[in-house]
């Protein structure tokens, strides 16, 4: 009985923790014209403007430059040398789809079944997730919400991280379908999945990949029919993929897996993006030739092969840049996203350069996600997604976000962790 009581107590405590919300709510629409002056502007396209001025009105940037005139009777912030950046973009995350990994009831990222092109991640996005505010305080203002599970998991959508509900948060809906290729590698762990099966594992993986190709061939034939006797919702969900209004994001790591990904581009004409791409540096010339972009995931990790340099994941972005491959830097999961800019900072230290590293989490990410016409850089006409930091946003030691704006709205940088910090400072009389 005691054990049952303790189990129920832990469940209730976890439930209350999930429901508990800090007093942070979305900001109202921008009403007054705002200018930021005396700032170092990092435009996100490689350009840096010292002692710059940036202005925005009704959510759009209206002025950027070293000597941009500031109209009278408006709100002006004198930043006194602080740094201004475009809002950081997380290109691959289940943020808002998972709240507590160990609690199944808070996991909406995965659907049952192998082929689920009609699943839309956006409708499960939880704007009340407490994790969201921990990202905003580090400068992440946009995120691509990605479904998981099976071979063909469904469509992702870009959200802005300051909304009352998923309709509010939606920034670009259904920008691509996601495929998770099975690993074409025999596990060396004698106790791991597939241990002792050898070539049977590879054969099973190749069979599943062929099943996916057959699905797309049938979908192509279905969409070519002028009239249908019955509507097939799964095939209909691929229509925008064949018209290139959506991209095909293929999650894979090894060279042979990425070469299979290029086959989807060749056979079906899909606009393919590789997600993960740990070994992409080995075939960078092929990816450049075929115009395939890469979302490099989790640079703060060990290489896949024991023969690779231990710092290979740090060097990969610079190698892709040198080869002319369009890439951005991502991170896996949801709570890990708060370190995204520091991953980019590591790449900057390993040959990429500071402004190119910033581009890899702003403008390049926007291009890959199909939102570069409205965000990703500080340019006139784009959305005012802006972050202000006292120091280098890519440096863990100096990153200190003082202000953030999403579509011109100055958002709160408070979160539950900050509130707990202040609570216990008060309790123990710490000043």
UniProtKB/TrEMBL annotation:
<feature type="domain" description="Amidohydrolase-related">
    <location>
        <begin position="347"/>
        <end position="409"/>
    </location>
</feature>
<dbReference type="InterPro" id="IPR051781">
    <property type="entry name" value="Metallo-dep_Hydrolase"/>
</dbReference>
<dbReference type="InterPro" id="IPR032466">
    <property type="entry name" value="Metal_Hydrolase"/>
</dbReference>
<dbReference type="InterPro" id="IPR011059">
    <property type="entry name" value="Metal-dep_hydrolase_composite"/>
</dbReference>
<protein>
    <submittedName>
        <fullName>Imidazolonepropionase</fullName>
    </submittedName>
</protein>
<dbReference type="Pfam" id="PF01979">
    <property type="entry name" value="Amidohydro_1"/>
</dbReference>
<dbReference type="InterPro" id="IPR006680">
    <property type="entry name" value="Amidohydro-rel"/>
</dbReference>
<feature type="signal peptide">
    <location>
        <begin position="1"/>
        <end position="20"/>
    </location>
</feature>
<dbReference type="GO" id="GO:0016810">
    <property type="term" value="F:hydrolase activity, acting on carbon-nitrogen (but not peptide) bonds"/>
</dbReference>
<keyword id="KW-0732">Signal</keyword>
């Amino acid at each position: 009985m005691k054990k049952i009581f303790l189990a129920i107590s832990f469940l209730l405590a976890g439930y209350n923790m999930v429901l508990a919300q800090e007093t942070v709510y979305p900001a109202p629409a921008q009403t007054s014209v705002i200018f930021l002056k005396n700032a170092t502007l990092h435009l996100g396209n490689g350009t840096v403007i010292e002692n710059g001025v940036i202005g925005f009105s009704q959510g759009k940037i209206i002025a950027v430059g070293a000597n941009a005139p500031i109209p009278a009777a408006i709100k002006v912030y004198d930043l006194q040398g602080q740094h201004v950046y475009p809002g950081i973009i997380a290109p691959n995350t289940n943020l808002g789809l998972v709240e507590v990994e160990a609690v199944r009831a808070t996991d909406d990222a995965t659907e049952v079944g192998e082929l689920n092109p009609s699943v839309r991640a956006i409708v499960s996005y939880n704007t009340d997730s407490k994790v969201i505010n921990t990202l905003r305080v580090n400068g992440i203002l946009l995120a691509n919400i990605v479904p998981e599970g099976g071979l063909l998991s469904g469509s992702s959508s870009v959200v802005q991280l300051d909304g009352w509900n998923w309709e509010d948060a939606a920034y670009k809906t259904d920008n691509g379908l996601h495929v998770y290729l099975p690993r074409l590698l025999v596990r060396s762990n004698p106790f791991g999945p597939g241990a002792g099966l050898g070539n049977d594992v590879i054969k099973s993986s190749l069979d599943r990949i062929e099943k996916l190709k057959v699905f797309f061939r049938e979908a192509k034939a279905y969409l070519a029919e002028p009239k249908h006797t019955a509507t097939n919702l799964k095939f209909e969900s691929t229509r925008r993929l064949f018209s290139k209004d959506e991209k095909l994001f293929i999650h894979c790591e090894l060279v042979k897996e990425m070469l299979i990904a290029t086959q989807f581009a060749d056979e079906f004409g899909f606009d393919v993006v590789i997600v993960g791409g740990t070994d992409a540096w080995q075939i960078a010339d092929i990816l450049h030739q075929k115009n395939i972009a890469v979302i490099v995931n989790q640079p703060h990790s060990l290489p896949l092969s024991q023969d690779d340099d231990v710092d290979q994941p740090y060097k990969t972005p610079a190698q892709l840049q040198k080869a002319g491959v369009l890439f951005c830097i991502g991170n896996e999961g949801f709570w890990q996203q708060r370190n995204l800019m520091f991953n980019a900072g590591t790449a900057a230290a390993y040959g990429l350069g500071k402004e190119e590293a910033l581009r890899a989490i702003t403008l390049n990410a926007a291009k890959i996600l199909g939102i570069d016409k409205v965000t990703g850089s500080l340019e006139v006409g784009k959305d005012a997604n802006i972050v202000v930091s006292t120091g280098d946003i890519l440096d863990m030691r100096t990153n200190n976000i003082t202000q953030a704006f999403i579509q011109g709205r100055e958002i709160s940088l408070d979160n539950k962790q900050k509130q707990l910090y202040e609570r216990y400072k008060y309790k123990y009389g710490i000043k």
